[in-house]
Amino acid sequence: MIKFKIPATSANLGPGFDCLGLAYTLSNTYKVEKAKKMLIEGCDKKFTKSDNVFNRAFLATMKVLKKKGSYHVHYEPTIPTSRGLGSSASVIVAGCMTANLLYGGKRKLSKDKIFQIASRIEGHPDNVAPAIYGGLTASTKLDNGTFYTSKFIVSSKLHFTALIPDFTTSTEKARKILPKVYKKSDAVSTISHSILMTKALQSGDFNLLKNAKVDFIHEPYRKKLIKDYEYIKKKIEKDGDAILLISGSGPTLLVISKDSNFYKKINLKNAKAKWEVRKLEIKK
Ligand code: HSE
Q1: Atom of ligand 1 lying closest to residue 11 CA
Q2: 238-258 burial code (b ≥16 CB/10 A, e <16)
C-alpha cells in the first residue's frame, strides 16, 4: 500500500485565465495498491465507474509506461468538489501517480511527463501544474500541443483564505458563458495585469497586487453565477487590506490579505448562501 497526497489548487488568480495557479496544503490523500480489478473507494459512487477521471488518468499513464495491470484506490477526500478548488485536477494527477508508483518500476515517468498526461486529460494546465509542482505556476499549451509550466515562490507576506459556499457551479457552464471575442483594450489590460500579478505574488507588494488583480476575461462574466459575489466583494475590499478573486471557475472566492488574521474578521452572516471561511497555507 502506498499513500500520497495531491493538493487543492486555485486556477486563474484574476487576470491569469487558464494560466496561473496556486497550490495549497489542503489536499486529498490517496492510498493505492496493485490489484487484479479496479476498485475505487472512499468517494461518491458517481466517481467510481470506469469512465471516471482517476481511471482515465491511470490508463493513459499505463499506456505511456507500456504496462498492464489494475489497482485499488481509497480516497480520503478533503478538497470540496465542484467548488473551483481543483478537486478534479487532484484526482487526475493521483490517477497518473498511481500508475507511475505501482507500475513505473525503474522507469518511472518524470514530473514533466505526468504534467503532460494530466494536462491533456484536464484540457488546460493551470490546476494540474501547481498540483504537481506546488507554489505558484504559470502554464501554457504550446503550438505543438505540449504543455509548459514555470514555478514561482509565493511571498510569505501574503495570506490566503477560501470562502467556500454551500452551492456548486459547473466548469463547463462557467466556460460556456465566456465571450468568443474580446475588445483589444480588455485583452491588453489583462495580459499586462497577469504579468504584474506574478510579480506581486512573488514580492508580496500589496499595492501592486491591488492594481494587477483586475481581470476582463472571465471574472466579469462569471461573477453572475456566484450568489452574494457583489456583497462579499464590497465587504472584503472596503478597507483596502484584502482583495477578492474567483478561485478557478468558482464558486469559491479567494481572499488575499496583508494580515494573517484577516480571516477572523470575515463575517458573512447576512449573505444569502452559507459560506465557510477556510484559512489556507501555500504548498511550497
Ligand atoms: N482555467 C479553468 C477555468 C479552471 O477557469 O475554466 C477551471 O478548471
Answers
A1: 4
A2: eeeebbbbbbbbbbbbbbbbe
CATH of domain 2-152: 3.30.230.10
CA 10 – ligand 1 centroid, Å? 9
Q: State residue 47's pLDDT score.
A: 83
How far is ligand 1, taken at its centre, from the CA of residue 97, in Å?
22
DSSP state of 170: -
Tens of pLDDT, residue by residue over 254-277, are: 999 999 999 999 999 999 999 999
CB contact at 8 A, 88 and 46: no
CA-only gyration radius of the chain, Å: 19
pLDDT tens-digit map of 219-239: 999 999 999 999 999 999 999
Domain segments of the chain: what residues?
A: 2-152, 159-280
Q: Whose CA is nearest to atom 3 of ligand 1?
A: 249
- Give yes or no for residue 175 CB within 6 A of ligand 1: yes
> Looking at domain 159-280, which of 3.30.70.890, 3.30.450.20, 3.40.640.10, 3.30.420.10 is its CATH number?
3.30.70.890
pLDDT tens-place string over residues 149-184? 999 999 999 999 999 999 999 999 999 999 999 999
Report residue 24 as a C-alpha cell.
495549497
**Residue 1 CA to ligand 1 centre (angstroms):** 33
Q: Is the pTM of this model over 0.90?
A: yes
CA 113 to ligand 1 center in whole angstroms = 21
Q: State how far the Cα of 149 lies from the Cα of 167, in Å rounded to an integer.
A: 32
Asked if 191 and 254 count as a contact pair (C-beta separation under 8 A), the reply is no
Question: Looking at ligand 1, which residue's alpha carbon is closest to its atom 1?
Answer: 18
